[in-house]
Design a protein that fits this description.
The chain is an all-alpha fold. Helices cover about 50% and strands about 0% of the residues.
């Protein structure tokens, strides 16, 4: 984000920055996200998405979410281990809600290799 803001003039203009103004460093964005909180961040995201939908700029036939920063692969393995300890024979979309950190998560995969 820091590099994008530093190098992209349209982004600077959108953020009301002057042409030669230095972009804030990476810690600013992390601190800002913490101060804002997940609820308010989700509200902002929902309002922007609603506005885009009303203007006809997005249709949302399919919605894909990159949750790679939200739940790590390690968390998924911990969930699987928890399922095994509870005596579940499989860890999949049917059983994930019982043990997963994110109760609404659904897992997709390619090929035959599953957990």
């Amino acid at each position: 984000m820091e590099n994008y803001l530093q190098e992209n003039l349209a982004c600077k203009w959108f953020c009301d920055m002057h042409l030669g103004e230095k972009a804030p460093d990476h810690s600013y964005f992390g601190d800002f996200r913490k101060r804002l909180g997940t609820e308010r961040l989700m509200d902002i995201f929902s309002q922007v998405r609603k506005s885009l939908r009303e203007m006809g700029l997005i249709r949302e036939i399919f919605t894909f979410v990159d949750a790679s920063q939200l739940i790590s692969k390690l968390t998924t393995w911990e969930d699987r281990d928890r399922a095994i300890k509870q005596g579940l024979k499989q860890f999949n979309n049917k059983t994930a809600g019982k043990v997963a950190a994110d109760k609404h998560a659904r897992f997709g995969y390619k090929g035959k290799n599953k957990y």
